[in-house]
Specification:
about 270 residues, disordered C terminus, AIM24
């Protein structure tokens, strides 16, 4: 194996964290901000990119970091190396309510495609690259951007899904239609495309967006019930404008109560 072989345990139900056990000189690479806790004896270091090209000199490091820049992520990642003479543990937490999904890349042909915000951490040696869409329509109307992340190697990787997780095994030729933001990731043989919803009523009054994703098997697809973009949009829509306290919501008068109180500003 080129990637470090790590053991792990996932704790919790809705606000999960993953605890990774490292043997001496084993390491794990994680997104900035996902760290939760670790034992003494583990050394934390910031590196360019994902650490998969660290032995290829300066150009390898720059290429690895450049791939992350294209996905909109930070140029840097954090590596946690066990420098102790015994086993040590380090934990990483999910950024919002949902599930942490362990991905054994050896079971999926060494490659897994995921949304750019889904990646949490992986064994050092796993490459976190970019997956360009072959069709312009996916980039223009995909809802999550032109570029997705590509996890490659023979180690363990961990991705995060918002809300409840659904795992679908598609047979050859079987098609699943999904909201674009609800896709967590899929295996390398799944064909991904974007389709127009169609219909004037659906377009104007549907409220579900103009496009959805079609995923065609064979392969495995992971779907999330609550994408972070949807959660953030609902929170923003419910937040009081102008910093004032919204006392009307849930009351009998509703917004009329604020108007009578003189709280509404025009």
């Amino acid at each position: 194996m080129t990637a470090h072989e790590i053991d792990y345990h996932i704790y919790g139900e809705e606000m999960q964290y993953v605890e990774i056990e490292l043997d001496p000189q084993e390491a794990v690479v994680a997104e900035a901000g996902s760290f939760m806790m670790m034992d003494t004896g583990i050394h934390m270091d910031t590196i360019f990119g994902d650490g998969s090209n660290q032995t290829q000199g300066v150009m390898g490091k720059l290429f690895s970091a450049g791939k992350r820049l294209l996905t909109g992520e930070s140029l840097f990642m954090t590596v946690f190396l066990n420098q102790y003479h015994g086993k040590r543990k380090v934990s990483f937490a999910s950024p919002y309510p949902g599930k942490i999904v362990p991905i054994d890349l050896t079971k999926y042909g060494g490659r897994f495609i995921c949304q750019k915000d889904a990646f949490l951490c992986a064994a050092k040696g796993v490459s976190v690259g970019i997956e360009f869409s072959r069709k312009l329509g996916r980039g223009l109307f995909g809802g999550e951007g032109f570029i997705m992340q590509k996890l490659e190697g023979d180690g363990m990787a961990f991705v995060h899904a918002g809300g409840t997780l659904a795992r679908k095994e598609l047979q050859a030729g079987e098609v699943l239609k999904v909201d674009t933001g609800c896709i967590v990731g899929f295996t390398k043989d799944v064909h991904y495309d974007i389709e127009f919803v169609g219909g004037i009523k659906n377009t104007i009054f549907g409220g579900e967006g103009l496009f959805y994703a079609t995923l065609q098997g064979p392969g495995v697809v992971y779907i999330q019930s609550l994408p972070f973009s949807r959660l953030a949009g609902r929170i923003y829509a419910a937040a009081p404008q102008g910093g004032g306290q919204q006392r009307g919501e849930g009351s009998i008068l509703g917004g009329l109560g604020n108007l009578l109180d003189g709280d509404n500003r025009f």
